[in-house]
TrEMBL record:
GO terms for molecular function: oxidoreductase activity, acting on the CH-OH group of donors, NAD or NADP as acceptor. Residues 79-306 form the NADP-dependent oxidoreductase domain. The keyword NADP applies. This is NADP-dependent oxidoreductase domain-containing protein. It comes from Symbiodinium necroappetens.
Length: 342
């Protein structure tokens, strides 16, 4: 995939130390005439102008639900996943729709092949850079040595950004985990990413980092939903202070209508998808449902305002829905990488 040409008015870099501080409200018109939105989730570094990009939208509704990472950075607890969102327009439209709906977290990856689309949608958004939390992931073939630095710089070019908010090792399958993890720490210290973490890591890989005396990830992104709860990994992450980011929180809809969740949804007059989102959100996870359908994008964020689950219902989910996944609890790899997009 060819890189995007350099754009002069790129989003400016944000210092890690200011991750939890909110910007003063109020838009401004920058040198380019692009107008910014307000209520950013983090402040801009002193001496830096608030460069913004504009999107043809009316009102932006933003959820304030965030999770504080160990470093103090505030990370939105709800966002849009883009796995299998096709490049060339589909992904761009989905991200633009999500931003209009109030999503403030966008998750992508080098392996998805859609970072250019994400960058184009961001560029057209009437938002300050520090209002949107961007996550991308290191392709497994880029593990080891200096590969991670070059790969992240390519991602930044595609995204038209000076930094990402969170950079993850996409999968332990790439090997060279210690060398690769050390490279991510260096990239964070260099300001190319505000935080670093991992994806698809099971308890074994996390404990290996700990036993090697390395700084632990701030986030572990794994497949996580009420049908497959990964209790061993959840317990370890809670113990180690690693935030859990749940991808495929709807289990791709494959079990809708086939479990007690359908009856509960009927009783609460809502969809099974909404209950899946509420379950993951009430568990304290960062939730990133994927969709390219505008109605579903709106419905997914609306689930945060929908009926909550009682403690008894939450326990019922654990008992009735999670039981069937116990055989897979020790599985470390939950994701099969798609073909690479060059």
């Amino acid at each position: 995939m060819p890189d995007m040409a350099h754009v002069g008015n790129r989003w400016s870099r944000h210092r890690r130390a200011e991750g939890g501080h909110r910007a003063k409200q109020g838009g401004r018109v920058g040198r380019s005439g692009w107008r910014g939105a307000h209520n950013a989730h983090a402040s801009q570094p002193a001496g830096k102008s608030l460069e913004t990009w504009e999107v043809p939208c009316e009102e932006v509704r933003n959820s304030d639900a965030t999770l504080q990472l160990r470093s103090g950075i505030q990370m939105p607890r709800f966002g849009l996943g883009t796995w299998q969102s096709q490049r060339g327009g589909e992904c761009k439209r989905a991200v633009a729709e999500a931003l209009r709906a109030g999503y403030r977290l966008i998750d992508t990856a080098q392996a998805y092949g859609n970072e250019v689309d994400v960058g184009q949608a961001l560029r057209e958004a009437r938002l300050h850079r520090n209002e949107v939390f961007i996550v991308t992931k290191l392709n497994s073939r880029e593990h080891g040595g200096s590969h991670a630095a070059a790969a992240l710089k390519t991602s930044l070019s595609r995204l038209q950004l000076d930094y990402v908010d969170l950079f993850l090792i996409h999968s332990p399958r790439g090997g060279f985990l210690l060398e690769t993890w050390d490279s991510l720490i260096e990239l964070r210290n260099a300001g190319l990413t505000r935080a670093v973490g991992v994806s698809n890591f099971g308890a074994q890989q996390l404990m290996s980092l700990q036993q090697a005396g390395r700084e632990l990830p701030e986030v572990n992104q794994i497949e996580l939903h009420c049908f497959w709860q990964q209790r061993e990994t959840e317990s370890l992450c809670n113990e180690l202070g690693i935030a859990l980011m749940a991808y495929s929180p709807l289990a791709r809809g494959s079990l809708f209508g086939a479990t007690p969740l359908a009856q509960l949804a009927q009783e609460k007059a809502c969809s099974e998808a909404a209950l899946c989102i509420r379950w993951a959100f009430q568990k304290g996870f960062i939730v990133i449902p994927k969709s390219v359908n505008p109605q579903r994008i709106l419905a997914n964020i609306a689930a945060l305002r929908g009926p909550g689950l009682t403690p008894r219902e939450m326990q019922g989910h654990a008992d009735a829905l999670g039981r069937g996944s116990q055989q897979g609890e020790t599985r470390d790899y939950t994701w099969k990488p798609p073909p690479s997009h060059d």
